Amino acid sequence: MDPDWLEDAPLLRAWVDAQRRLAAGDLRAFTVPGHKHRRDLIGEVVTGDVPLYGGLAPIRDADALLRAAEQRTAERWGADWCRYSVGGSTHGNQAMTLAVGVPGDTVVVDRTCHRSLLLGLVLSGLRPAWVQPPIDDSTGLPLGITPATIADTLTSHPGARAVFVTSPSYVGTCADVAALSQVTRAAGVPLVVDAAWGAHLGSHPELPVHPFTAGADAVVTSAHKALSALNQGAVVLARTDLLDPGRLDRAMEATATTSPSGTILASVDGSLTLLAQRGGQLGGVLLDRVRRARDRLRDVPGVVVPDSTTLRGDFDDAKLVVLLAGTGADGIAVDREMANRGFILEMADRDLLIPMVTLADHDGAVAALAAALAETIEGHRGVPRGTVPHAAWTVAADQAMSPREAFFAAREPVPWGDAAGRVCAEVVAPYPPGVAVLAPGERITRGALDALRQARTEGARIAYAADPTLDTVLVVQA
Ligand SMILES: Cc1ncc(COP(=O)(O)O)c(C=O)c1O
Description:
With 478 residues, the protein is of the alpha/beta class. It has helices at residues 3-7, 10-24, 59-77, 88-98, 115-124, 147-156, 177-187, 245-254, 262-298, 331-340, 363-379, 403-408, 446-457, and strands at residues 81-85, 106-110, 127-131, 163-166, 173-174, 191-194, 218-222, 234-238, 314-315, 322-323, 347-348, 352-354, 411-415, 429-431, 461-463, 472-476. Helix 2 packs across helix 9 (262-298) and helix 4 crosses helix 8 (245-254). It is globular. Pyridoxal-5'-phosphate is lined by residues 88-90, 93, 114, 116, 166, 170, 194, 196, 222, 234, 434.
């Protein structure tokens, strides 16, 4: 690693120093973590694990070190406020719900939001005015939420305190954040973008612009998804003319661990510094790699691999999304065979596969993935199906009570067949993408129930449900 580069990442620098001192035996920790770096207790799993406090810096100096690193990242983006997190975008999303409004206030939220935001509404007591993305007819994928939708919803909810939008979506489609921010600025409300999958955006001219550069008031990003940070590493950026910095601090602190991993924080710092220094080059190579994989897969009759030229609106061309309906192949069976061949994919359902490719992949590995996928899909070829949007993209929510009221309400399990019309008391989501099909406080529809059953029958993992067999569903007691 280039030592000059390391000087721009103070947390990573501190981690490297801590490892040297540990190896030399001159860092004797009488702090947490309790493993004390011994590898003869639970083995190698503790390797490299140092805390922020007492690991990256003496306990009294660690906050200043962390703030210095965050300040550098804020400056790179022109942000007024920046915080690193070891709690993923989940932490960032939930903190942002605690940073706007007071319990009972309304916020505009896209219904395709991740469940972390939904549960942020439970924590904060905010009431959602849901908005839906348009669906692309030919692929069934959700497009970006439109400015007109946000403008209309802000007009019908003049007291709304913020707008929460997911961009990019799990499937790589992006909203026009610049246009959305014009609408929200005109209304004087902050625009918060969940860009968990978009940390690399803006690093190359052929990628969509980063949502913070485009004008979002706050952006939540996972540094462990598109970048090279350790799992759980995340970053939140904000401008503070519409958001109160003190409130942002309190919200972030309230939901954070008091024992943050210095190793994860160092990896966030390193991955953001790498992006700042070499993002253009790495982003360009990544785009080429994914384009070659796309071309290879397009040779398979019936396979659709969308990109920014085929989809209306913005798309993250570094995202490889493989649509199978035209081949008749069952995506879950393809996924299983790929796993047997040693390729673990990020998402698979009957109709769609997402092998996650990042700037850390090598050309050869991505070419091998594309070749194996092409062969496996051929081997599972069947009768072509029509395109059906995933149930998670089309929920028409009828909010009978707030998510928070439903979360705390007395509940009872009812047989699946009797659940339609009742108010849901839990989150039920096919995972991935982790977007709730049933959510607390919403009136359950027969359509949602059928879609979940079908997803389960097709082999999808049904997450968060008290009864993942779907024989019963938890509803608010009548
Ligand atoms: C859109 C979106 N937001 C937030 C999250 C949560 O991110 P993390 O796993 O970093 O907590 C996810 C996770 O997949 C996601 O898809």
